[in-house]
Amino acid sequence: MDKAFTLYGAQGSGSVLVEATLTLLGLPYEVIDAPAWEKDPGVQATIGRVNPMRQIPALVLSGGEIMTESAAILTWLADSHPGSGLSPGLDDAKRPAFLRWMSFVSASIYAHYWLRDDPSRLAKTGEAQDYLLRRSTQRIADCWAMMDAQVSPGRYILGDTLTVLDLYVTVVSRFRPRRQRFYAVAPKMAAVVRRVDEDPRLTAFWAERYPFDDGWDEASEV
Question: What is the pLDDT at residue 1?
Answer without folding.
Answer: 43
